[in-house]
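User: Please write out a complete single-protein record containing the residue sequence and its fold in C-alpha cell form, without commentary.

AI:
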Amino acid sequence: MSLLPSETPLYNHPLPQIEQWLKNQGCQQDETQRHCWHVQRPSWQAELWLDLEQIIVRYNIQSGENQQEIQRSFKYSLSREDIEQAVFSGP
C-alpha cells in the first residue's frame, strides 16, 4: 500500500495508510487502545493518540534523574511531511 504524496494533508490519507506510515516510523500500536501508538528514540520516547481532529503527542524525556513530559498536538490538516518532521524530530 503506497502513501499519498507527502504534501497531502493527513486527513486525505485513509486510516490503513496512516497506520502503515506510523509503523514505517517505528511506532507500535497499543494492543488494547488501538488509537494509541508508542515510539522510542535514543533520547526520548512518546505516545501518539489518533484523536478525532488531531494527533496528540506526549513526549517523555529522561535526563539523568529528571523526567520531563511535553505534550503537543497537530491538526490533520497539516501535510504528512509537516507532521512527520514535527513529531519525529522530537520535542
About this structure: The longest strand covers residues 54-63. The chain has a mean pLDDT of 90. The helical segments are 15-24, 80-88.
